[in-house]
Amino acid sequence: MPELRVEKVLGPAKREIAKGLGAHNIAAVGKANRRAFAVTIRDKGKVIGGVVAETFFGWMFVNMLWVSEHHRGKGFGRSLMEAVEAEARKRGVRNVYLDSFGFQAPKFYIKLGYREFGRLDDFPSGNSRHWMTKAL
Questions:
Q1: Residue ranges of E strands in 26-113
Q2: pTM for the full model?
Q3: Element (H or E) spanning 130, and its range?
Q4: CB atoms within 10 A of CB 124
Q5: Distance in angstroms (rounded) separating the CA atoms of residues 44 and 30
Q6: Angle made by CA atoms 134, 104, 118, in degrees to the nearest 5
Q7: pLDDT for 25-34, tens place per residue?
Q8: Tell me, what's the pLDDT at 12?
Q9: pLDDT band for position 2 (50/70/90)?
Q10: Which CATH topology does 32-135 take?
């Protein structure tokens, strides 16, 4: 009889799950061609902001965007997003999606032309998580 186990998401179990899901997905829609990348802003060699994203299936997912508190409000976030969108276009990407908690930057993304397509209220407690998209 098969047994269920709670395990750390490391090592052989994760590899087997990813391998099985990957094979299923490729059979259904072909290779995703996942390619992760980052764009950073540095001051005297130190990272003061950056964005981490990945492209696949003609889309880009913005995983993380951060600008140090001291450098916020100076246009660095906009510059980072413009750079990451430019790289996405070079890769043939047609659309972008991302998520942002309400205490982070949903209004910032709206100013950049993103629109909300989903929201989870009370996540985390007393806040909300916003899913946003933009056509390039």
A1: 35-43, 46-56, 59-67, 95-101
A2: 0.87
A3: strand 128-135
A4: 11
A5: 43
A6: 45
A7: 999 999 988 9
A8: 84
A9: low
A10: Aminopeptidase (3.40.630)
